[in-house]
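name: query_chain
kind: protein
chains: 1
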Amino acid sequence: MTASCVPDDDLFPETDDVEAYIGSWNVMDNSLKSLNYKVTIRKNPSNSAEILLDNFAGSSDEAVGLVTGKTVTVYNQRIGNNWRVSGSGSYISTNRLEFSYDLEIAGDTEARRAIFSR
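structure:
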């Protein structure tokens, strides 16, 4: 058997998918205007397959995401000051996540793409 040459950044933990997402992230959010903010991701103590994304969409509130391997699903939910979010994210490497989501504020919806890095 030969060893594969996979860069460390491309490795994904096989034991607990949620662990790959845990930590502090710098976010560059490409909305109608460029936004930069921080998000802290932690395990949901109520559900081992979910993560809590503190300050998701720069909301000062948390969104819940369901982790399935390299994908996070942010179900349609209310956060912040009655904002509604829904979308999904992808694990790219240990230092990069990418999210595409819809954000609705006061009846106006915009599609967003956010890059999480650390």
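note: Residues 39 and 93 are 17 Å apart (CA to CA).
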